[in-house]
Design goal:
Helix content is 26%, strand content 26%. It is an alpha+beta fold. The strands form 6 sheets. Strands 6, 7, 8, 9, 10, 11 and 12 form a 7-stranded antiparallel β-sheet that branches. Strands 1, 4, 18, 19, 23 and 24 form a 6-stranded antiparallel β-sheet that branches. Strand 23 and strand 24 form a beta hairpin. Helix 1 runs antiparallel to helix 2 and helix 2 runs antiparallel to helix 3. The N and C termini lie far apart (67 Å). 42% of the residues are buried.
């Protein structure tokens, strides 16, 4: 069994394939759901020597480290066929080394369906898959409800167990992002989708048992998985705007201008830009976006750009004779400096940018630009290692796994001595503070801003 056969396609970060999941409403014989697979050392060695060469982060990983981790994972393998979700968990013993290098790198179990069931494939299963009705904040071993669509649940509820599975056991199967899509957690923990969920919660110090209905996956993706792109409001005379994804950037610019104007009308001098849940997006109209903050004609952006050439990158970058090679783009193809539009400058304002471990890709670029050019103060916790370095994600699929990885390596102008993004004001996440349902990081920043104003 080959570990991976990489067919390179552009990846949209919601990896769930809504036509490929069984629910309680479907007959089991319609689907091959979480089937069994096997693991052997040759699969992992062959991956390193063949398909793995096209994965950008591999170039900065020592082969002996990968082999050692692979052997460690194999030592845990029971030498019999096991469910795909369990197999992927073992694979991660080796592949998490890639994720440490490239935070975009992920390996997920593949939903596998019976292709002969043509009638089933016609249905929109996003309506029928019933997911947990909330997303999550993860702090160490704590899973805390962040947002919910169930009136039975509250922000700040601490999850002790779901369907009898302890939170710690669930976390052992998933990626420990600061903000977690519950549907991805379900995917990784043995495709745990059902009509109703038995929850054990801790709320205000009391243990609560309750049963909640699942919601259609379409609703989860629309309302909970970062689809509300902009949320703005006034906190006294301090402006607040949350940007959960850099899509529809013209709209983001419009909303940002509105909150800045509102702050001025209210006699304030500070705007908070919340990127804690923002995994990235695209850079459309970034020149106009940055122009809101400065009168500069242009700003420094990139030192250089390297591309791992594959069939997927060739249409964008060329170099068809260099598949499998890391190519440094000529200066003519690198955006060394971004020309701005000084007329769009919104005037003097104090900008505070909230960041977290989940801030990545174009969101990390935006935060870095403001920090490097002294246009804003970063607040919160450090971003993931190399959040600023890698991008242009693609995917490779096999019958059993889905692999996500970066194809481009950037060197951006930054104040950071090691290229990683750190806050100017560090405010850590503390689980005990979040189970109250409040937002302690935001509250502490508001206290800091008010103290500065009153000095």
């Amino acid at each position: 069994m080959a570990l991976l056969y990489c067919k390179y396609t552009i990846f949209v970060f919601i990896i769930l394939c809504s036509t490929s999941i069984i629910t309680a409403q479907e007959k089991p014989d319609d689907w091959m759901f979480n089937p069994k697979g096997e693991m052997n050392r040759n699969d992992l060695i062959n991956f390193w020597n063949s398909d793995g060469k096209l994965i950008l982060g591999r170039n900065n990983i020592c082969e002996s480290d990968f082999i050692a981790r692979a052997d460690s994972a194999l030592n845990s393998y029971p030498n019999v066929s096991i469910n795909i979700t369990e197999l992927v968990k073992l694979y991660r013993g080796a592949f998490d080394l890639f994720t440490l290098e490239d935070p975009h790198f992920r390996i997920y179990p593949q939903f596998i369906r019976n292709a002969d069931n043509t009638e089933a494939t016609k249905r929109n299963f996003g309506k029928y898959i019933l997911a947990l009705p909330f997303n999550l904040l993860q702090v160490n071993d704590s899973l805390i409800i962040d947002k919910t669509l169930s009136n039975k649940l509250s922000k700040g509820d601490l999850i002790l167990s779901i369907n009898g599975i302890n939170a710690k056991d669930l976390l052992d199967y998933t990626y420990r992002d600061r903000y977690i899509d519950a549907s991805l957690l379900q995917l990784q923990y043995h495709m745990m989708f059902c009509r109703h969920y038995d929850l054990v919660l801790l709320r205000h110090g009391k243990k609560i048992h309750m049963n909640v209905a699942g919601i259609p996956l379409n609703d989860y993706l629309k309302y909970l998985a970062n689809y509300q792109e902009v949320n703005r409001k006034m906190l006294g005379n301090i402006g607040y705007i949350e940007i959960t994804r850099f899509n529809k950037n013209k709209y983001i610019i419009s909303e940002l201008k509105k909150i800045i104007k509102q702050v001025k009308v209210n006699g304030g001098h500070s705007v908070i830009i919340d990127l804690r849940r923002n995994p990235g997006g695209n850079g459309d109209n970034f020149d106009k976006l940055i122009s809101l903050f400065t009168t500069k004609e242009e700003i420094d952006y990139q030192n250089d750009v390297k591309v791992m050439i594959s069939e997927k990158t060739i249409p964008h970058y060329g170099y068809p004779d260099s598949i499998g090679k890391l190519v440094t783009l000529p200066d003519s193809e690198v955006i060394k400096r971004i020309p701005l539009k000084p007329k769009m400058y919104m005037g003097e304002m104090n900008y505070y940018v909230l960041i977290s471990q989940s801030t990545g890709s174009m969101a990390s670029t935006f935060a870095n630009i403001l920090q490097y050019n002294n246009l804003g103060i970063l607040v919160g916790e450090p971003m993931r290692h190399n959040a600023l370095r890698y991008g242009e994600v693609a995917e490779g699929n096999s019958p059993i796994v889905r692999l996500i990885y970066s194809t481009v390596e950037y060197s951006e102008f930054t104040k950071s001595p090691d290229g990683n993004i750190y806050p100017d004001i560090h405010i850590p996440y503390i689980a005990s503070e979040y189970i109250s349902g409040r937002d302690p990081v935001l509250e502490k920043l508001l206290e800091i801003i008010k103290a500065v104003v009153n000095e």
